[in-house]
Design a protein that fits this description.
The complex is a heterodimer. Chain A is an all-alpha fold. Chain A contains 14 helices and no strands. Chain A has a single domain, classed as MetI-like (MetI-like fold). In chain A, helix 6 crosses helix 7 and helix 9 runs antiparallel to helix 10. The model of chain B has no long low-confidence stretch (mean pLDDT 91). In chain B, helix 3 crosses helix 4 and helix 4 packs parallel to helix 5. Chain B has 2 domains: 224 residues, Rossmann fold, CATH 3.40.50; 96 residues, RNA polymerase II/Efflux pump adaptor protein, barrel-sandwich hybrid domain (OB fold (Dihydrolipoamide Acetyltransferase, E2P)), CATH 2.40.50. The chains are: A mainly alpha, B alpha+beta.
Chain lengths: 273, 343
């Protein structure tokens, strides 16, 4: 580590200004707004603002929906990643591209698409309504659906990468010991790619927690029911800027905690494995 | 009641075509250079590589159509492939568990096997905490714990250092002789093959070039590769009576033989002379020295000329003869030291 630091420092002193100047500017651009958030925070009234009922409601709803969305993503995304990594079928690369579209799609477009399919008059929504009496839009379940739609690709990509990097021969060894495909998956594959699954789940959870566009489009903005933290921030900015800052701080803290835990525990462990 | 294998695997730039039988309790070694197809043969037996053609019969039952998990096999992989997230005990219990044995019972079985390979104190250790020799023994216990009818070992000693290898080799030999089923062992090390196997099948370029008891193979190599493995000089020639003609050099031998023949002799049987020796011994030819290197306690001299020969001489002889590369020299070998057999 010491040698690494020295080489990095000597590299810095030799960096030409033409690169160094925009680099520092870029860093300031990314860091200053966050610093501004800290400077402008109403520190004296922070405790009572944090415990205000609408803040707690939004926080509780956010944590709940992000967690459920992550659970749904794990349940569907891990098998999907396995399929993409391990089973060769015609059109696999196309499926992979389609699955990752929500990564680059503007979330609000995702929300519109969800409305068209799962809305009361949507292709699937109509059927859900008539057959089961289930209506997703503008409900807490709708929030989960919107978040999962946007966040699941993060999990799928992370787990698929881990599966591709994993040594297939362990699975062969398990097969020679009499393990069925399902046993191999459960007792060998999943434990081997656990770091990748955890990293993917954390990324997925963080993305779900910050979800705004698809949620507000598909689930609306009803306090206590579909108003998650990001929605509450946006609304508070109009009426009570200080409250918006407090809500933002909470999200910032959550992000930093996630980043720290990811870097220390799983990202490095995952890449080493 | 045995293994009968006719294996054919065809790939774009490679073709494996081998056949062999193994009796219960017998250990067969597939010996061959890297890329000869030994591991492919083993993987085909395990069901990990599909056969293009051929059949595998074990105890009268065809294995061809069965996936790996349904074959009554145990495999020890070259780098063991112990599951890194499981303890030694759970690694060994994995197989019995997959065969429907209850957890507690599987662990008891695993414990017995670990005791049998001398690792009773390491049941809780994770694979990364085990030494190479310990990991090898866990891998063996794991393969045997499913009570296979066919045991497959892929270079079981290759990953070990020289000292551990010696110890593990003799232990492995004991476990293999206790095992009642057929064993197929893949190795590129002739010593492993000689010590562990009852029969050798030598594979080169995807085909069997020689097979037989280890002692026979060692005495009568049939290819350059086998001869080098067992440390003999080997030449193809034509025999008439007690004489074998190899590239214009006539070797007098003790074996009565006619037609295409092979002649083999050890490097230590070659004598070197600076000038043509008096009394003109038989089997004399002129050569030049291509290289000189240490070989154990002796010096190995590589001779070029009509035939390429390895000769082992003492360091004192090298000094006496003042041998240097490029030098011309006379070489001879006694008829009693040669062995000639039909090609």
């Amino acid at each position: 580590m010491a040698a690494d630091d020295v080489s990095r420092r000597s590299g810095l002193t030799r960096a030409p200004w033409v690169l160094l100047a925009p680099a520092l500017l870029g860093m300031a651009f990314l860091v200053l707004p966050l610093a501004g958030l800290l400077v402008r925070a109403p520190w004296t009234t922070l405790p009572e603002r944090l415990t205000a009922p609408h803040v707690l409601d939004a926080l509780r709803l956010s944590l709940f929906t992000a967690t459920v969305a992550t659970a749904v993503s794990l349940l569907l995304g891990v098998p999907l990643a396995w399929l993409l990594a391990r089973v060769s079928f015609p059109g696999r690369s196309l499926v992979r591209a389609l699955v990752t579209i929500p990564l680059v799609l503007p979330p609000v477009v995702g929300g519109v698409a969800l409305l068209l399919v799962l809305g009361r008059r949507g292709l699937v929504g109509q059927w859900l309504e008539s057959a089961f009496g289930i209506s997703l839009p503008f409900t807490t379940a709708g929030v989960v659906v919107a978040e999962a739609f946007v966040a699941m690709p993060f999990l799928v990509i992370s787990v698929e990468g881990a599966l591709r990097a994993a040594d297939l021969r362990f699975e062969e060894a398990a097969a020679t010991l009499g393990a069925s495909r399902w046993t191999v998956f459960r007792r060998v594959t999943v434990p081997l790619v656990a770091p990748g699954i955890v990293a993917g789940a954390v990324l997925c959870w963080a993305r779900a927690l910050g979800e705004f566009g698809a949620t507000i489009t598909f689930a609306g903005n009803f306090p206590g029911r579909t108003q998650t933290m990001p929605l509450a921030v946006y609304l508070a900015l109009e009426t009570d800027p200080d409250s918006a800052i407090v809500l933002s701080l909470v999200l910032l803290v959550v992000s930093v905690v996630i980043l720290a835990s990811l870097r220390d525990r799983w990202v490095s462990a995952g890449s080493a494995a | 009641m045995s293994l009968s294998a006719r294996l054919s695997v065809v790939r774009p730039r490679f073709r494996l075509d081998v056949a062999f039988d193994v009796e219960p309790g017998q250990v067969l070694a597939l010996l061959g250079p890297n890329g000869a197809g030994k591991t492919t043969a083993l993987r085909a037996l395990a069901g990990l590589t599909p056969l293009t053609n051929g059949q595998i019969t074990l105890d009268g039952r065809s294995l061809d159509a069965l996936p790996s998990e349904r074959r009554p096999i145990g495999v020890v992989f070259q780098d063991y492939l112990l599951f890194p997230h499981l303890s030694a005990l759970d690694n060994v219990a994995f197989g019995p568990r997959c065969h429907g044995v209850a957890k507690a019972e599987a662990r008891r079985t695993a414990k017995v096997w670990l005791e049998r390979v001398g690792l009773a104190d390491h049941t809780a250790a994770k694979p990364r905490q085990l030494s190479g020799g310990q990991a090898q023994r866990v891998a063996l216990a794991r393969a045997l714990a499913v009570e296979p009818r066919l045991l497959l070992l892929d270079e079981p000693l290759a990953a070990l250092d020289a000292h551990t290898r010696l110890e593990i080799r003799s232990q492995l030999r004991r476990h293999l002789s206790d095992f009642g089923g057929a064993t197929v062992l893949v190795t590129h090390d002739p010593l492993d093959a000689m010590v562990l196997a009852d029969r050798l099948v030598v594979i080169e370029g995807g085909s069997v070039v020689q097979e037989g008891a280890p002692a026979d193979v060692a005495r009568r190599p049939r290819t350059e590769y086998v001869a080098r493995l067992v440390g003999l000089n080997l030449y193809k020639g034509t025999a008439t009576g007690r004489q074998v003609s190899v590239d214009g050099i006539d070797f007098h031998v003790n074996d009565e033989i006619d037609g295409p023949a092979l002649i083999a002799f050890p490097p230590a049987a070659v004598a070197l002379y600076r000038s043509r020796p008096d009394g003109s011994p038989r089997n004399l030819w002129q050569a030049h020295i291509e290289g000189i290197e240490r070989h154990g306690d002796n010096i190995r001299v590589h001779l070029g000329g009509a035939i390429a020969v390895a000769a082992d001489v003492t360091p004192a002889a090298v000094a006496d003869l003042d041998l240097t590369p490029g030098q011309r020299i006379w070489a001879s070998v006694k008829a009693t030291e040669t062995r000639a057999y039909p090609a």
